[in-house]
Design a protein that fits this description.
ten-stranded mixed sheet; elongated; alpha/beta; six-stranded parallel sheet; single chain; binds L-homoserine
């Protein structure tokens, strides 16, 4: 019998308890022994909830109980999760977490500590919720060099952009609706400014390239500037706008960014709509792979943590190697990365075409019925730096969006 402690009985923590208890029969077979939740740590009381039988308020009870072999954390944030993770591994316990802040900030260190102790630090649920993406990268794709990872990594923003695209609604209207439905937080900054997706692509890039990527070094743009008018052009072009987290290796340079992108119908991620996440991985041998599923939510996220618990029980005394060194990965200057750019310009195409071509060279142009006092263009592939220089020459530029 393997004993487990769950840290945090919020949305995900209570989901882990649910998965481990309701699926206990099959989990016993797959783990090779029964898996029992011995403790749930939370500061609150839960009157009438059966969790009361195993509820504790002091982490030291868990830490000092040698029977607890696996700790599953779903508290979020760095304090006290970081000290709980370190203490658990130091005490010879396996640690599974859905906490992307913890994994992004201290992942390399905790992976090394787990290795030193012959235990495991597992974090499948930290990226893509219920989507298996970490384990495939660590186990199934080890023969490949990963060349790129592109993901719709945030369900809230994907819900907002999908609604704007389909219903022509304004950003603020859809954000409010998403908050009312409980998809978006009351303070939605981490989602809509792209920071949540940024942490996730930092974790994926670290695993893809084997060195530590700091999310602070990743160029990040959220979706707050995207308007219903942008979608009128996107629809005309047969495209949609998605918030992508992207990391790629190009001729020895590694680039990473989070930004809204115009995506055409041929792109595998075009069809990932609503609160779903999708992750497209390319390897130099396996070529394209696509992972799709619920990137958030109680039970999908809990399913991934519980699967880590099963893995930790199966390999309770064997460290499963993770390709993530503490050495920092120097990202290449984002200014030298290249893309095509969509640009909206105030005025008429007839009067401004020459100016636009003088700035960007040959472009493709888009006009939308009903938008008489503006037009849009799509540049050739140019670098970020060149685009920024050229854009200064365009009088009346309204906005720009990169093309995927
Ligand atoms: N706020 C996140 C999202 C939750 O919307 O995807 C999962 O990390």
């Amino acid at each position: 019998m393997a004993k487990v402690a769950i840290l945090g009985y919020g949305t995900v923590g209570s989901g882990i308890y649910d998965v481990l208890t309701t699926n206990s029969d099959t989990i016993t077979v797959k783990a090779g022994e029964p898996v029992e939740v011995k403790y749930v740590l939370d500061l609150r009381e839960f009157p009438g909830d059966p969790v009361g039988e195993v509820l504790v308020h002091d982490f030291q009870i868990i830490l000092n109980d040698p029977e607890v072999e696996v700790v599953a954390e779903a508290m979020g944030g760095l304090k006290p999760a970081y000290s709980f993770a370190k203490a658990s591994l130091e005490a010879g316990k396996n640690y599974c977490t859905s906490n992307k802040e913890l994994v992004e900030k201290h992942g390399a260190e905790l992976v090394a500590l787990a290795k030193e102790k012959g235990k495991n630090f597992l974090f499948e649920a930290s990226v893509g919720g219920g989507i298996p993406i970490i384990r495939p990268m660590l186990q199934s794709l080890t023969a490949d060099r990963i060349t790129s990872i592109t993901g719709i990594l945030n369900g809230t923003t994907n819900y907002i952009l999908s609604k704007m695209s389909r219903q022509g609604l304004a950003f603020d209207t859809v954000l409010k609706e998403a908050q009312d439905l409980g998809y978006a937080e009351r303070n939605p900054a981490a989602d809509v400014e792209g920071f949540d997706a940024c942490r996730k692509i930092a974790i994926l890039a670290s695993l893809a390239f084997g060195k530590d990527v700091d999310y602070e070094n990743i160029y990040t743009e959220g979706i707050t500037q995207i308007t219903d008018t942008d979608f009128k052009y996107a629809n005309k072009m047969g495209m949609s706008v998605k918030l992508f987290g992207d990391a790629r290796e190009e001729r020895g340079d590694v680039y990473a960014c989070v930004a809204p992108m115009l995506v055409d119908m041929e792109h595998p991620l075009y069809a990932v709509n609503g609160v779903y996440n999708g992750i497209l991985v390319e390897g130099n041998k396996v070529e394209k792979l696509m992972f799709f599923g619920s990137g958030a939510g109680k039970l999908p996220t809990a399913s991934a943590v519980a699967a880590d618990v099963v893995e930790a029980v199966k390999f309770k005394n064997t460290n499963l190697p993770i390709y993530w060194s503490a050495e920092k990965l120097e990202l290449s200057d984002f200014g030298t990365s290249t893309k095509r750019f969509f640009v909206r310009v105030a005025g008429t195409l007839a009067e401004k075409k020459a100016m636009c071509e003088a700035a960007f060279g040959p472009c493709e142009y888009v006009t939308v019925d009903g938008l008489e006092d503006e037009f849009a263009l799509v540049t050739q592939t140019i670098s970020e730096n060149k685009f920024a220089q050229a854009a200064k020459k365009v009088e009346g530029m309204i906005t720009k969006i990169r093309l995927a």
